[in-house]
């Protein structure tokens, strides 16, 4: 496997959530200076990514589950990692529901929602293949996903009204008191997958420049995912959209394009990226449950998880109800972003291992 596979996967997992999930939260979190919440979240993730990697390098042959168990005992590890398990289950429930709703709205209006959600059963089959399979697939998928996203964004520039970018600065930084801002933190959590793989298996991670460049390349995508809807519709209109980027792509008219709608490219790219990270999230959940909570065969856990996710996804009455629920879930997102990396870093200071 190429030494760049890990970084390509890291990049794809982030830009998919950035383009699909994050815009609606950021657009509702403030009324001006949208780069501020983006940059603030980006810097917070960067800080805790650094702490996580510093801690993991000390335990190069172990994942964060083993670190917590060995350093604090199994019961405390269960307690501290329970919110992480909750986050993974929430992701596995929400993302398929969001994407299925998007497919029904965009291309499959005659199909019942449950029939579209059944397609996500493939995610749980992929989860049984392990993380190396996802990372290899990310290299292949990147050849399709990144050009499609870049083409979609470039095509939408023709509809931009640059006056909508003002005012550029929000001195009040009122997004910090808005619940939607914290709900959007779910889009900045993919870095936690690094804790579920022994970093010693990926020597390229020791060379910080690779991760620094990969992480630096994310910022333009985060900003474009927010400013694309704003420059197209204006803040007030964009903030009311459930799928801002999808609406942007649907507004683009390209006469020479062989397909009627640019939306097709965006939907294909977002689905491919979501399948990758959702499969990885399913694998992480199964591994966490098997190691800490229920020592069953992974196939049984995967099967039960698939049923639970599909049932919970179908029980969600509508997206407005889901939006109200997410404000309560933001505490879990913040815990996972802050507490888990900080704990790994602190444990590395109290229990250093000799290099393997």
UniProtKB/TrEMBL annotation:
The keyword Ribosomal protein does not apply. Belongs to the amino acid-polyamine-organocation (APC) superfamily. Spore germination protein (SGP) (TC 2.A.3.9) family. The keyword Transmembrane applies. It is found in: Membrane. GO terms for cellular component: membrane. InterPro entries: Spore_GerAB. The chain crosses the membrane at residues 39-59, 79-99, 111-128, 140-161, 181-200, 212-230, 264-286, 298-316, 328-347. It is a multi-pass membrane protein. One of its GO terms (biological process) is spore germination. It holds the Pfam family Spore_permease. It comes from the Bacteria. This is GerAB/ArcD/ProY family transporter. It comes from Paenibacillus foliorum. Keywords: Germination, Membrane, Transmembrane, Transmembrane helix, Transport.
């Amino acid at each position: 496997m190429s030494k760049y596979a890990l970084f390509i996967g890291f990049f794809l997992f982030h830009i998919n959530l950035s383009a699909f999930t994050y815009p609606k939260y950021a657009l509702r979190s403030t009324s001006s200076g949208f780069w501020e919440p983006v940059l603030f979240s980006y810097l917070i993730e960067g800080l805790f990514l650094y702490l996580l990697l510093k801690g993991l390098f000390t335990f190069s042959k172990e994942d964060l589950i083993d670190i917590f168990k060995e350093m604090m005992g199994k019961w405390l590890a269960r307690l501290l990692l329970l919110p992480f398990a909750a986050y993974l289950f929430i992701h596995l429930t929400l993302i398929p529901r969001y994407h299925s709703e998007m497919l029904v709205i965009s291309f499959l209006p005659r199909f019942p929602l449950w029939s579209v959600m059944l397609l996500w059963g493939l995610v749980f089959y992929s989860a049984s293949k392990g993380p190396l399979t996802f990372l290899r697939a990310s290299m292949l998928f990147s050849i399709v996903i990144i050009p499609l996203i870049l083409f979609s964004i470039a095509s939408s520039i023709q509809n931009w009204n640059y006056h909508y970018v003002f005012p550029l600065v929000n001195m009040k930084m009122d997004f910090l008191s808005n619940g939607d801002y914290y709900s959007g933190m779910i889009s900045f959590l993919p870095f936690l997958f690094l804790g579920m793989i022994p970093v010693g298996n990926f020597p390229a991670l020791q060379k910080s420049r690779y991760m620094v460049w990969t992480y630096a390349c994310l910022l333009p995508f985060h900003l474009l995912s927010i400013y694309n809807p704003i420059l197209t519709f204006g803040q007030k209109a964009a903030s009311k959209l459930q799928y801002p980027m999808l609406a942007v792509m649907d507004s683009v008219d390209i006469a020479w394009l062989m397909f009627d709608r640019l939306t097709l490219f965006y939907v294909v790219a977002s689905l491919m990226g979501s399948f990758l990270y959702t499969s990885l999230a399913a694998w992480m959940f199964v591994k966490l449950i098997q190691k800490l909570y229920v020592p069953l065969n992974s196939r049984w856990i995967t099967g039960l998880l698939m049923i639970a996710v599909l049932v919970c996804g179908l029980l969600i009455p509508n997206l407005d109800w889901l939006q109200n629920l997410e404000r309560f879930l933001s505490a879990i997102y913040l815990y996972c972003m802050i507490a888990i990396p900080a704990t790994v870093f602190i444990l590395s200071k109290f229990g250093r291992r000799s290099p393997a």
